[in-house]
Structures are given as C-alpha cells and as structure tokens.
C-alpha cells in the first residue's frame, strides 16, 4: 500500500540533474511532493492530480503517469539548496472521505559543490 | 501571519510520565494530523482529525491520545504506555479546496526521554 520511492539516495554535483520516482500499487487521485531539510519540517513543493498537467516552478518539475500510477520529480541544474529528503504522499482514488496521505519512505538527495 | 505552531521545540520526558505536545493553527483548516518521525525514517501517522470533536487512529496510535475540542487546536499526549517515545513529532493541517488538499506542517517538537 505504501508507495515506493526510487532511488533511496542520490549524490549530485552542483548543476547536475536528478529524477526521483514514486510508484503506487493503487490507482491514485493525487500525488504530493515535499522536501525536508535536516532537523526541519517538510515543505510542500507541488501536487499532481489525476488528469492534470505536469507542474513545475523554477527548475523543479513533476509529472504523473496515470497508466503506471507513478509520479516523477525532476530536478534540473541542481543547486546546493536542493539537498534534503524528498517525500511523496499519495491519495488513492477510492479513499472516499478519508483525506489522509500515504507516504513513501523518502529519497535522500545531496548536492555537493 | 497564518501558520501552524508547535510547542515546545524540545521536550524531555521522565519514565512513567505523560507529556502533552501542543499544535495550533490559524489557517482555518478543518483537518489536522500528528506524525512521528524517527531518525532517517519516513512519516508515520499517529492520529488525524477531519472535524472538531472527531478523530481517527493512524498507523501507530498505541501509547498516544489526542483531543479536538477546537478547530484551531489538536494536542497530542504521549502516555507512559508509549515505551519508546524518543522521536521528532510533526503536526500538520489541511483544507479541501477545489478538489485539491495540501498538508502544511508545523516546525515540529523533538521529544527526548531522560
């Protein structure tokens, strides 16, 4: 039931690109992406909805493949500030009035100079 | 400024003691959540509430209790029954708007056992 995030960890040099995937075994209504820096709270990045378009701001974007029930987060020309742990939270289509998210275990991203 | 506040930032618990973590929001959100995070781990849901005077157990509710007497407040009590309470506790809130719902997190409370 828990979505699977891959890779578990990635190390980049500043300026390199990365892709983080979030795959679910359930049909999804939405996928939520967050970044958490060490010792801080998760910060919302973006939400992808079923039938919606690819989202993005600055050099971080995301897509949602409904056929595969997979969302991908794209980080281009990475900056030092991108370092942290990225979590996806998913909401199944059949959740009804249950509004809780089902979270992946996170992907640790380190950007080095 | 609207937001979510959690207090205290650090909390120390003695053996056999109950402690209460505060979570307040002024975002007019109807849903609130409590998560536990252990070092290097993901977010585990303890309790959540979608409306005042109602709440549901999450995945790891044993040893914890909550109340939701006001829309703005969702305190979490860590009871003596919780044998391993050392963790980072995060409170979040959300509101459904236009088919979308985003959870926003407070700064967290770090609980340590003496």
Could you explain the architecture of this structure?
- The complex is a heterodimer of chains A (113) and B (114).
- Chain A has 113 residues and is an all-beta fold.
- Helix content of chain A is 0%, strand content 55%.
- Chain A has strands at 4-6, 9-13, 18-23, 28-36, 43-49, 55-57, 60-65, 70-75, 84-92, 102-103, 107-112.
- In chain A, strands 2, 4, 5, 9, 10 and 11 form a 6-stranded mixed β-sheet that branches.
- Chain B is mainly β and 114 residues long.
- Chain B is 0% helix and 52% strand.
- In chain B, a hairpin with a 2-residue loop joins strand 10 (96-97) and strand 11.
- The interface between A and B is medium-sized, with 20 and 22 residues.
Give the helices and strands, then pairings.
The complex is a heterodimer of chains A (113) and B (114).
Chain A: E1 4-6, E2 9-13, E3 18-23, E4 28-36, E5 43-49, E6 55-57, E7 60-65, E8 70-75, E9 84-92, E10 102-103, E11 107-112
Chain B: E1 4-7, E2 10-13, E3 19-25, E4 31-37, E5 44-51, E6 54-57, E7 64-66, E8 76-78, E9 87-94, E10 96-97, E11 100-101, E12 104-105, E13 109-113
Parallel strand pairs in B: 2-13
Antiparallel strand pairs in B: 1-3, 3-8, 4-5, 4-9, 5-6, 7-8, 9-12, 9-13, 10-11
Q: Report the mean per-residue pLDDT of chain A as an integer.
A: 92
Mean pLDDT of chain B: 94
Give the helix proportion of chain A (percent range).
under 10%
Seen as an oligomer or otherwise, the chain set is heterodimer
Order of helices and strands of chain A: EEEEEEEEEEE
- Per DSSP, the total helix count of chain B is 0
Distance N to C terminus of chain B? 35 Å
Counted beta strands of chain A: 11
Shape of chain B: globular
Q: Strand portion of chain B, in percent?
A: over 45%
Q: Structural class from helices and strands of chain B?
A: mainly beta
Low-confidence stretches of chain B: none
Global morphology of chain A:
globular
- The number of helical runs of chain A is 0
Estimated share of beta-strand residues of chain A: over 45%
Helix content of chain B: under 10%
What gap, in angstroms, lies between the N and C termini of chain A? 37 Å
